[in-house]
Every structure is written in structure tokens, then in C-alpha cells.
Amino acid sequence: MLLFLATTAHAMGGTGGGEEGGGGGYSIFFLLLAFMVIFYLFVLRPQQRAEKKKKEMLGSVKKGWRVITAGGIRGTVAKVHDKEKILTVTIAKGVEVEVALAKIEAAAPPGEELAVAEPARRGEKAKDDKGPRRPRR
Question: pTM of the prediction?
């Protein structure tokens, strides 16, 4: 669509006769370059930061840490199997499950708060809301 708008604008700005307007190709190039820079700054860079932060968090998980899995199961790490990249997580007394390290959403040492940012879902009560939301008709 961007190319369509640029070619339309170039076609509308004709000088008439056999003369050809110069510099039209350069403006498209700079517009495309600016678009790529903005895309990098607002999409790719924050995603790379989040991935790096999660990788550091997963690399520091130890026995005794509290975790939340991608499925929403909360528990305490009982064992760390480094070679297989698997954690044994205690979710209740006598109940242990093995979880792939990549499926851990959040982890915290024993004394720290364990929280995951959850998106607000339609119809559910938000933290700052006073009541359930009504669906629009």
C-alpha cells in the first residue's frame, strides 16, 4: 500500500510535457528507510529486550524458587536437571511434575513476589475495575 501511495503521488506531481521530475526515487527510499527504523525501534528492539530478560531469568532458576508455568501452574522448584533443561516442580505435598524450562513464564527467589502480567479479558473483573464488564451489543 505504501508503494501504491508513493507511485500515485509521483504520478500526480508530473511537470507536464516531456520533462521528468527528479528525486522521486530517493524520496521513496528515504520513506522506506524511515519506516524500517521505526519498526525496529518500536517492535523488534523491545521484543529482543524481553527475550534477553527471560533468558537471564531462566538461567538463574535454582532449587527453592517459586515458578509459574505457561499453563498457569504455580509451584516450587524441587530439582533442576541442567542437561535436559527440565525442572521438577512441587505443586502440592507429595505431588511433583516435570516441566520444560522453556515453559516457565515467571520465577522468583523464595523471598520475592511472584507475579505475571496478565492481559485483561473481556467480561472479567480487572484489578482497577469496580465490577464485571458487560459485553457490547
Answer: 0.56
